[in-house]
Amino acid sequence: MYKSVIRPILFKFDPEAIHHFTFSFLKVIHKVPFVPQIFRSLFVIEDKKLEREVFGLKFKNPVGLAAGFDKDAKLYKELSNLGFGFIEIGTVTPKSQSGNDKKRMFRLKQDEALINRMGFNNEGAWEAAKRLRKNKKILIGGNIGKNKVTPNEDAIHDYEICFDALYSVVDYFVVNVSSPNTPNLRELQDKEPLMNLLQTLQNRNLSKPKARPILLKIAPDLTNEQLLDIIDIVKTTQIAGVIATNTTISRENLNSENKKETGGLSGKPLTKRSTEVIRFLSEKSGKAFPIIGVGGIHSPEDAIEKLNAGASLIQIYTGFIYEGPGFVKKINKSILKNS
Fold first, then answer.
1. pLDDT averaged over consecutive 10-residue blocks of the chain (339 residues)?
2. Domains (range + CATH), the chain
3. pTM to 2 decimals?
4. Nearest 5°: phi and psi at 215?
5. Binding residue per annotation — 326?
6. Closest Cα partner for 197 from 245, 169, 162?
7. 120 known ligand binder
8. How far is CA 80 from the centre of its chain?
């Protein structure tokens, strides 16, 4: 019903406007008595065979919601009722910022993809932390970045602020240096600045009463040589793992009319490349660290392929938008069938 009736209606409107509409709808309908229970009965699968223990955390199932959907931790409770094993909020920055000018999100219907150039629009790390203090049982990742106005030479300070703000309210951290929508941000993926950033955060982390797993989110556009550098950096800094991958700046083999829009491309065109990156990191590192696989998961088969390539967990975003609220359940059922 979603793909045949609901999605065609939603896709007639601006994607960012529909995003906010969906947020409001889920927030309001969950206030109706028994609706949360109904949602859980429809979309949640609980089975011991789905449980995973990764970087010291216990996940009810391996399917998570990628960062960017619930930037400000406003809907994590409601979204958990759609079956996700974990929710990643953000990307958050130290200070609130409005992001890039609108229009900044575009559907590529023929390619089953999205292009966004949101630019880390968020209300700030401390505001997200306030909301997350109410969380009791949902496993939360905190995706952190720098403010647009912060020069790269001062970026570490921004990440430290976000780390301190979220430390007590998230289960793991994700360092985002791979978004193409903040000017010069991807320069922080170069070996020397990245090593410095991650080591500084890890030192801060290890000084806390209980260290949190820190993961690095990387771009799919890195060369094999750069990916080998990533492996070396992860091993040297001893962070917990990698999220592969973020959106791409590539525009190869696209058919939709708005394919030339600037920003990060997500969805089906990313399926093959993100899986290649996962497999490369897993094989070349000797499975030395966990990988969360994300990028172009539009079917249960795509999810299984990423797990088989070396991912310990997976995340969805664009596939969730195209496939609908029952998508998480479909993936988890497929994982059970293949277990």
1. 93 95 96 97 97 98 97 98 98 97 96 97 98 96 97 96 98 95 88 96 96 97 96 97 97 93 97 98 98 98 98 98 97 95
2. 2-338 (3.20.20.70)
3. 0.96
4. -120, 155
5. no
6. 162
7. yes
8. 15
